[in-house]
């Protein structure tokens, strides 16, 4: 029988895996044939998140020139580099365009079709537009992948889970809020992919509490304003009259930082410098394990500082008080935060040019406003300042930090479980909205349709309504009959609505304390409670402890997901080739 590979998921992660299978097959696969089965109710290429059937108002949050599905020489991998066009090259767009998600879906579909065309003769791909319900089978034998609506399973020599963002059952807090909403006739929208949420219960003119200030909120804002017929004329929003009034807050109380609006010039910081593969390997070799804050964060902080100051000293030397060679030598030798701070204080006169990661993570810490109106003015000024800085190349040390964040993420993927905080911090600094979206926020705020609640937003359900407060404005509260949790569900095994992951967990697949699926960081094989990799089951994606910033990436930044795809493809091909040889020998 021909070898069978089942890939559950047909979005960009599966597409990238197929591309790597096509690239590595000539070297590694000796069989005369191979059947690949893609299982996903959504079309191959874009999958659910990047499907073409969604509102054209929804954008990507990256410039078109910063989106690629193809490897280059900066990707550390064993397989061959196969270059290809970025989104802007493929679509003949201006590189600085923020394309809509429909266009990205078409790009992903084209990449998928290219991968199919590049597969060797005898390798077939079939799409099954169904949900996978569970995987069964012995560790050393063929696996069975059970599909919704089919009585017989797909037989598989190997299974790769290439799932994206998944729905989840509510946690205790969300369940209690939902129950309260049902009891009192309120509206409660739990964490979800915003494009799939039913927003019709949010009525015109009524207040809506929104908890979450990231990209899910941006989508919500767009769909409830332009999506309901409003429009912008310059810096002014002209309402349709069908909009609700959004009261938004979060842990930080501010939106994610704007995408940087200028191009890189000059030398890139030579990364990794203080946190590379050798340091990651040393952490993994520790017999007693490692702690993120104690052992990993100092390396991250040192690396991001190096990226920041390399750019500051080499591109804006007039704002420094020391030669770069001297600073670099002393920075490398600094024994701890106190020495580093003393060096930076002496070498960088303006505090605005110094990197303070704690202040960045908590921009409203200790800040108090005497009135809600004053806070609206204050946060608008904060957003305007962020926009100005992120579009001013004289602050290009920020872009150095962005490159440092990408480099660091690539090393953290090697470590596996590093806890939930890092991913949110990365997204807040490096994966924020396009500048135009923040300008739209400002216009909506001036129009009275968007009101800021503050940091540490707390929501209570009492007196028949939802009530929000924040220490940013002591004594102020706002009531509403609707609450929206503007964020994706947490990717946990125990609460996954997808039965496939729950069944894997019940079958012995290990999870981290945060509920992520544990995988071998080397090739993505699923681990059991004893740390043993399953020989026939792999997993890639945000629900694993080797999650990456995304399934596609900015060109020439190392592409951690590409490295993972290559390692998994090579491991799968080697296994299938060896199995084929054994089958022929019988």
From TrEMBL:
Domain FAD-dependent urate hydroxylase HpyO/Asp monooxygenase CreE-like FAD/NAD(P)-binding per the UniProt entry, residue ranges: 6-165
Region (Disordered): 512-556
InterPro entries referenced in this protein's UniProt entry, alphabetically: FAD/NAD-bd_sf (IPR036188), HpyO/CreE_NAD-binding (IPR038732), L-asp_N-monooxygenase_NS-form (IPR052189)
Domain of life of the organism encoding this protein: Bacteria
Annotated protein name in UniProt: Adenylate cyclase
Taxonomic classification: Bacteria, Bacillati, Actinomycetota, Actinomycetes, Kitasatosporales
């Amino acid at each position: 029988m021909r070898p069978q590979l089942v890939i559950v998921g047909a979005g960009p992660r599966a597409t990238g895996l197929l591309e790597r299978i096509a690239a590595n097959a000539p070297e590694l696969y000796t069989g005369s044939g191979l059947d690949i089965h893609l299982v996903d109710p959504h079309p191959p290429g874009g999958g659910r998140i990047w499907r073409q059937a969604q509102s054209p108002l929804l954008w990507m949050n990256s410039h078109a020139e910063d989106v690629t599905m193809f490897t280059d020489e900066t990707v550390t991998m064993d397989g061959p580099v196969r270059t290809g066009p970025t989104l802007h090259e493929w679509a003949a767009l201006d590189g600085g365009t923020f394309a809509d998600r429909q266009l990205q879906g078409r790009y992903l579909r084209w990449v998928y079709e290219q991968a199919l065309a590049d597969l060797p003769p005898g390798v077939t791909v079939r799409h099954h537009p169904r949900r996978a319900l569970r995987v069964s089978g012995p560790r050393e034998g063929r696996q069975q992948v059970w599909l919704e609506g089919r009585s017989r399973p797909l037989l598989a020599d190997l299974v790769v889970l290439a799932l994206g963002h998944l729905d989840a059952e509510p946690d205790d807090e969300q369940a209690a809020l939902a129950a309260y909403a049902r009891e009192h006739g309120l509206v409660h929208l739990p964490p979800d992919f915003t494009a799939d949420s039913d927003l019709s219960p949010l009525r015109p003119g009524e207040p809506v509490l929104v908890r979450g200030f990231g990209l899910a909120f941006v989508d919500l804002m767009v769909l409830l304003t332009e999506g309901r017929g409003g429009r912008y004329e310059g810096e002014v929003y002209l309402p349709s009259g069908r909009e609700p009034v959004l009261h938004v807050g979060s842990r930080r109380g501010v939106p994610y930082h704007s995408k940087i609006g200028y191009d890189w010039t000059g030398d890139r910081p030579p990364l990794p410098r203080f946190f590379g593969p050798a340091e990651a390997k040393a952490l993994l070799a520790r017999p007693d394990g490692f702690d993120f804050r104690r052992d990993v964060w100092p390396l991250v902080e040192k690396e991001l500082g190096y990226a920041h100051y390399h750019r500051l000293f080499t591109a804006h030397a007039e704002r420094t008080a020391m030669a770069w060679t001297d600073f670099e030598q002393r920075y490398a030798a600094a024994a701890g935060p106190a020495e580093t701070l003393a060096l930076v204080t002496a070498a960088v006169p303006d505090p605005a040019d110094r990197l303070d990661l704690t202040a960045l993570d908590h921009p409203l810490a200790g800040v108090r406003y005497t009135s809600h109106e004053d806070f609206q003015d204050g946060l608008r000024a904060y957003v305007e300042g962020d926009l100005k800085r992120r579009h001013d190349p004289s602050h290009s040390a920020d872009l150095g930090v962005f490159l440092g964040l990408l480099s660091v993420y690539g090393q953290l993927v090697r470590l596996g479980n590093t806890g939930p905080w890092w991913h949110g911090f990365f997204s807040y600094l490096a994966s924020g909205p396009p500048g135009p979206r923040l300008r739209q926020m400002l216009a909506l705020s001036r129009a009275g349709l968007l009101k800021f609640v503050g940091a540490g937003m707390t929501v209570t359900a009492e007196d028949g309504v939802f009530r929000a407060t924040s220490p940013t404005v002591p004594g102020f509260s706002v009531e509403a009959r609707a609450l929206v949790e503007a964020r994706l569900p947490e990717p946990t095994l125990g609460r996954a609505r997808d039965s496939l992951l729950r069944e894997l967990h019940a079958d012995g697949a290990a999870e981290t304390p945060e509920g992520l699926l544990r995988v071998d960081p080397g090739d993505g094989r699923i681990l059991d409670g004893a740390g043993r990799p399953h020989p026939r089951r792999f997993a890639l994606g945000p629900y694993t402890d080797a999650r990456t910033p995304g399934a596609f990436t900015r060109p020439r930044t190392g592409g951690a997901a590409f490295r993972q795809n290559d390692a998994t493809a090579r491991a799968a091909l080697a296994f299938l080739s060896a199995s084929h040889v054994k089958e022929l020998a019988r």
